[in-house]
Amino acid sequence: MASFPSFAALVASLLLSSSLVAVGGAASVRTGDAEGRNRQRNLSTTKFLDYKFDKDMTDHARIDRDQLAIQQALALQTSESFDNAKTIYEEGGHSKSYARLKLVADGGLPTKVKKGSAIKGKTADGVTIHGKAYEQAEEGDAVIEVQYPTDEGAAPCFVGALNLVDNEVTDGCFAKTGKITIGKTKLQYDYNVEEENLNGRTIAGFSLGAKKKMYDTEHGCAGCPYPEYAAFYDYYQDFEYADDWVKSAASGSATPFSGNGNADFSKFGFIGRGEAVKKGAAYMNTFMYVIRELRDAIDDCNVACSLECNADDTTCTQCNDEPVAAWDEAVAFYTGSLAETEGHDGGYLLYSLANKRGLNCGTHTDGQSWVNTDIFENFHQGKKHLEVRNCKGAEKNAERISQLMNVPLIQGTLRYAHKLSEHGNVERDSADLIEKHNAEGATFAAAVLPALHKCNEKAAKTVYKNMKVGKLKANYPEVKQAFESTYDCLGISCADVGGVLNDISQFFLPEAAPCGSQQPFKQYTSAGGGGTLSAGAKFGIAFGSLAAVGIIAGVVAKRMNGRKEEVKDVPAPAESAVESYTAEDTGEKSII
């Protein structure tokens, strides 16, 4: 009899092999492939769903490469690899890179150096680096921190914690010893390339800095506390709830929340803990920071200024571009640097999640989720409002985006609740697979429970009771009803969320059809689950390494803007294996 690998081994091998597929080319295309790492969408020159960035946001968008590195480490499923994933989460490697250079001369810096001052040096190959002072340095300082350039064409210096997984790229780093030039002054330095190239932007930092940037009023945050973040604090009673979730999952310990929603990850092995880490990092940490940038843009917009000032009017404050810059950053953090638009797949952040859940729930057109279509419409409109200082208009767009961002989290929770219910395959699934589904469902729920709690505490308790870590069987109708009772309050609809589909047949699963109005869902019943697919609307969807191509149905009317999408030389992203959910369906077809 042939022996088959365990589910855990299969998942690990699929995750690891898929992580090595396409960040820069072939098998050598790990994240450390410098040539591959340079072939990416540059967010200063390329439109994303027709959204044009005013400034270079490539460095911001590279935060998804930290997410990828975390997932690659987790896929190895060892204690050491989980420690490495946690360190990459904390220290980063790809975004806002800077070097900490030790000055050789006695007496240190001869004069003060302001933040942002131009500083030049050379790589080990003699290529000039046009950097800038990362922070202000004072006269006499023995160390100066220099931020690397992020403009198109600059060779990357990606180190941070990436050396733990042999993924660092040092082509663009300062040579280990040499001279830097500040103005007309040349200074000798030396440093450790592997240990003193650091990162000022990390996924952990999104959570650790949230209280100061999204809640406290004494640090210049005019709109604080931001309502979305305040809801999370009210629920968890923990300002660093996302960081605590990720670190507890990584270490296999219990979360320390003083309020609701605690999780004991000692109940999980590597499979469940890995799912909680990677989904928590992307859908709790990065999720809230997108909202922070949207709210920050509104705060910047509300600063009193004039669009035009006379040159001789010293009392006039000229409006700057800070609101638009913050808005652009939100878009960059929402999409990342690895997301495709041509095929609407790939990537590791919220844009990619929305497209995956759109496919699972019948809320997409040709692979582009309706949520993403609506969110990008609001990104466009909000930016136009900010450009003319229509702050109220932009605020409405920000609020709508934050509402829509909850939809994929609800869809994910519902999908895994169904898998864990009597209507799914829970009675037949392996213990490893059940743990995986529980971890995924629990993390999706954790990312949306505070918003649910703000609307209806009873509904939040119901979802938590069914989806918490260690709850290996869920009452799907109960979870579905709890969510649906809050849709009006959350500002979303049954049509936004859709239903849970059989991925192969595209029929709704038992008890999982959309609530409310059947539009834009057009359903019919066909004995045996048969039915005719609409002509001209069929397309294939690949289920990772686990399934062959399946034909699914397409399109009823849903408002679309017919935008032509552009992608310039975007590397195909490494994808996790996507399992196909094929529980017995109802015979109700989703014509999507």
Order of helices and strands: HHHHHEEEEEEEHHHHHHHEEHHHHHHHEE
Radius of gyration: 25 Å
- N- to C-terminal distance: 43 Å
Q: What is the residue-mean pLDDT, rounded to a whole number?
A: 83
Number of helices: 19
Low-confidence stretches are 1-40, 517-578
Helix-strand makeup class = alpha+beta
Total beta-strand segments:
11
Q: Globular, elongated, flat, extended or rod-shaped: what is the shape?
A: globular
Q: Which percent range describes the beta-strand content?
A: 5-15%
Largest β-sheet summary: 7 strands, antiparallel
Give the proportion of residues in helices: 40-55%
Please write out the topology:
Elements: H1 7-19, H2 34-38, H3 58-61, H4 63-75, H5 79-91, E1 97-103, E2 118-122, E3 128-133, E4 143-147, E5 177-182, E6 185-190, E7 197-199, H6 203-208, H7 210-214, H8 227-236, H9 241-251, H10 270-301, H11 322-335, H12 350-361, E8 364-365, E9 368-369, H13 370-387, H14 391-419, H15 431-455, H16 457-467, H17 476-484, H18 487-490, H19 494-497, E10 539-543, E11 547-552
Antiparallel strand pairs: 1-4, 1-6, 1-7, 2-3, 3-4, 5-6, 8-9, 10-11
Helix pairs in contact: 1-4, 4-5, 4-10, 5-9, 8-15, 9-10, 10-11, 10-14, 10-15, 11-13, 12-14, 13-14, 14-15, 14-17, 15-16, 16-17
